[in-house]
Amino acid sequence: FENFGLELNPRAEDLSTQIGLNPKESKFEAYKQIAIYTLAAGLLVMFLLSKNITPLIFAVLILAVNFYAQRPYGTGSIAQNSPVRILPMQSSTVFYVTKNPEKVEILGTNKEFYKIMLGGNKIGWVKKDELSKD
């Protein structure tokens, strides 16, 4: 048998578990928004050219659904000494414990947990009973 070694030089950004978790920074989300607005603009052009109201109704409906889907879940406050987990399950790793009550942005929900964004754009999960909505 022969011994060999690999030289690894990890950088701090390579070790983050937060990469790709923020839905606001998704490349797919940007492409989706471009497609939705392009479709709505096309329907508005069809309305102007044909004077038929159907494309206008569809354009307004598409834009209304898009604005509704983009609405944030809101904001809230985490109680003092609340554990923030990596995944929405009781046995998940706790990566942060609040020292004081903290304001957070609510990004999503699960049966027992809220997906939140802390200050510094860190994303995690807290139990629903440890967060009060504003």
Regions with pLDDT < 50 over 5+ consecutive residues?
none
Task: Enumerate the strands of the largest sheet in spatial order, edge to edge or round the barrel.
Answer: 6-5-4-1-7
Radius of gyration: 22 Å
Strand content: 15-25%
What does this structure look like?
With 134 residues, this protein is of the alpha+beta class. The protein folds into two domains: 23-70; 75-133, SH3 Domains (SH3 type barrels, Roll). The strands form two sheets. Strands 6-5-4-1-7 form a five-stranded antiparallel β-sheet, with no helix packed on it. It has a two-stranded antiparallel sheet with strand order 2-3. It starts with 26 loop residues before the first helix and ends with a strand. It is flat, with a radius of gyration of 22 Å. It has helices at 27-50, 54-70; strands at 75-78, 83-85, 94-97, 102-109, 113-117, 123-127, 131-133. The mean pLDDT is 82. A hairpin with a 5-residue loop joins β5 and β6 (123-127).
Task: Show the helix and strand layout.
Blueprint: H1 27-50, H2 54-70, E1 75-78, E2 83-85, E3 94-97, E4 102-109, E5 113-117, E6 123-127, E7 131-133
Descriptive terms for the model:
2 domains, alpha+beta, 134 residues, flat, 2 helices, SH3 type barrels, five-stranded antiparallel β-sheet, 7 strands, single chain, 31% helix
